[in-house]
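User: My instructor asked us to take a sequence, write out its structure as tokens, and then describe one feature of it. I'm not sure where to start. Here is the sequence I was given:
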Amino acid sequence: MFPSLHSLLLTRLNESHFSTRLRSSLGLQHADISSRARTQLLLVSIPMLLGVFAGGSASAQAAGGDDPFAGVEEMIVTGGGSAALLAPANTSAIAFDSAALEAHGIEDLSDISAQVPNLAIRTQDQTNASFFIRGVGLQDFGANASSSVPIFQDGIARNPSATQLVGLYDIQGLNVLKGPQGSGNFRNASAGAFLIKTRVPEPEFSGMAKVSYGRISSVDARDANRYGFETAMNAPIYGDIISMRIAARYDHENPFFENGCANRTEILDRPRRDDVGLEAARICGETFQSQQGTTRTGRSHVEPFLGRFLNEVDDWGMRGSVRIQPPDSNMDWVFRLEVSRLNRDATVGQNIGVSNNLRQIGRQDNGSYIDPDIELRRLELLAQITAENPGLRPRERRNLSYDLLGKELYKDPLDRNPYRGDFDNPGRTLLETYSASTTGTIEFDEFDLEVNLGYLDYRKSQRQDTDVSSNRRFPSQGNDQAYEIYGSLDFGGEVIGDFPIEWDFGLYSMHEKVEAFQEQTVNDAIRINKFSQEIYSFGVFAKFDYEIFEGFNLSAGARYNWERKDFQVRATRDETPNGGILIVDGDSGNQRTWDAVTGFATLRYDFTEEVGTYISYTRGFKAGHFNPSRPDAKDPTFGFADPERIDSVEWHLSLEAWANRVKADFGIFYYNYKNYQVFRLTTTGAGVFRNIESARQARNYGAELEMTVTPLEGYAPEIVEGLRLAVKIGWLETNFTEFTVLEFRQFESGQISVPINYAGNPLINSANLEITGTVTWPIATTRFGTFTPQYDFQWFDDTPFDPNNGRGELNPLGESVLPPAFIGNRAYILHNVRLSWEPPGDSGLKLAGWCRNLEDRRYKTFAVDISTFSGQTLNYVADPRLCGVEGTFSF
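Assistant: Let's start with the prediction itself. The structure tokens for your sequence are:
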């Protein structure tokens, strides 16, 4: 069996899954991949082999030993719900079970941030996301991005960034761990981690089906429909020994974002500038361009017959699980296969022009494009100014109109029609993901063993109107693909000799390879970037928990982290569109190895059964990172970022009062970072570059409060006593204490390197204050069933998306043109309502109606300033108000 498994994996690694053209361009030979894969495959095979051999020993021991639980038919484990059992002890965490995920309308990980203070999840293209916990994370959407908030599904790390927006269907529980994880198998978890547990098969017939219908109901977006379907089936295959479960989901979203460049005629039929006047020749705001100069006498680049509406989505996934529980063996094995496919229009947004020289917002970008809605509003302001101040000179009136326009765009982000734009090349995104995993638990007399082994594979292609305008300024297309092999072993017990010490020991190993190809057209020059990266990583960890005396516990642990990255990148450009000389901008390779010892120590004291406190120190680590957009990968300034290290101190107080009607947890924390990794889009006259750079030192501190109150329990009739109030508050203070970078700025004498100091600015995606609240009041009637109204809100303070406090790039004079949080979100609040109904008895039926973003609030999922290069900011808008109904039937 095992030689076959080994051969199968090696065959898969050498198949044509990876681009032959890319392999040859990077100098990678077939034998290189095989030898590296053999080494890592041996490492990840060890946990599986040891687990199966150990299973045989466990079967023998079970047959000949005494079972301390023989004759016990049921064991009840109490705790904070199924999700709470996922979290390590003495860790700041927020847990969600399946009912909570459904009640809050959480469909994938990007939806969870609204329910967890000091958690931010940013998305730019709906396939890659960046995760921030307590202001700490990496805002990189690249194929080789390595988050400081790893995602674990069923014990398997989902390291490739394109696979991390996990579709949350058929989920048993989800935990958000806050703060660095110094022990356990949490690779690179310098900010926290997500733990996701899917439902396992049970030896009984059961199933569920859920149908949902939603409709966008907005004042400035098309009323588009959304449909969803989810189902799961559980069945025994062979008594209580073998059982299986199949789950599937499908979601479709009709397009709602209007394209002003739709339904245009063929390019050859469009007017030329030398045939008609300039204004008549313009199509949806684009500027013509010629081979002779910047003013074109040729034809438009806008593609013919584009659809009027964008943002159509087709998304489906399927998971199959088999569970084997051999009799008299104390073993439990679960085998899973999962596949998903996302096919959607590429994400589009809004273009807001910025003039660095005039320090004005709402101007034309460098391609002479301006959103018609913005220009119309400026003309209205200009007419008003002219009527009220006829004595002003034309230039003064024009400048004043831009000043007033900028204030309006700052107060109410985006323009009057945030879901309308002009796109010459909207593009499309296709993502396919495949995974296989195994989890085995084996009970011995002295300890338990858990084995995890997983394989993950994805392929993605994307074409995008990156400049979000009607001009062909810098559109992009590309593809990337990766595979990952992951394995872990975890031993745990409750005694060491005669000492009652809970202990845990384990190891993990991971191998990942990613290849990416990116082509971008910049002012008719074609720029191509290809890179390949392989990661070899392993860790060994141990931790224990000892009760020094009653109510006083000491927990401690450590982990040795080792990681190697092999990176190769090649950048080329062709300055002549019809084919000319290929210019190599850079071609280099690099290999780096990092290692570190991390750990934690926690003291916990329980004053009573209702009141307890703990204080914890943790040392965290995250490996270094290579920058694909910089072909000179050996340059420590631009080529790569140093590994990240953090020292964290945290104190918590938890209590229950008023006969458990009040439950609260309060905590404060302090972080000290060295070489904190920061993502920045840097721009020059030559283009836009993605950089990960190291802030030599960064600090943050804050406090969090979670509280639930059931004030009517025992005081009101049973029909209405279930009123539940919940509030979560997160307060955060962050700053870069040492962070200086070099950027190129254009002067008359040419480009000059200018130092920029970000010290004193807050960290990216760090809102100073966040508050979420939920009111749930189930009304249980004997005759009509149970009605459960629910209201929740989320309030977010100003949130910057860049290291300059959301003020964008500095101009050549070192000035910030934009106001604070313009590249980010100003403070906003969201309101959501839901009403569910369950009929009396055990019918298995549940109906619900809901509205999300009830006030139809406008806010951004991501924004970036690239005005130095193209005179514009890119803004991506969150969904408008969405209302719908859903029905669930389970048996």
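For the description part of your assignment, you could build on this observation: The first strand starts at residue 93 and ends at 97. Try explaining in your own words what that tells you about the chain.
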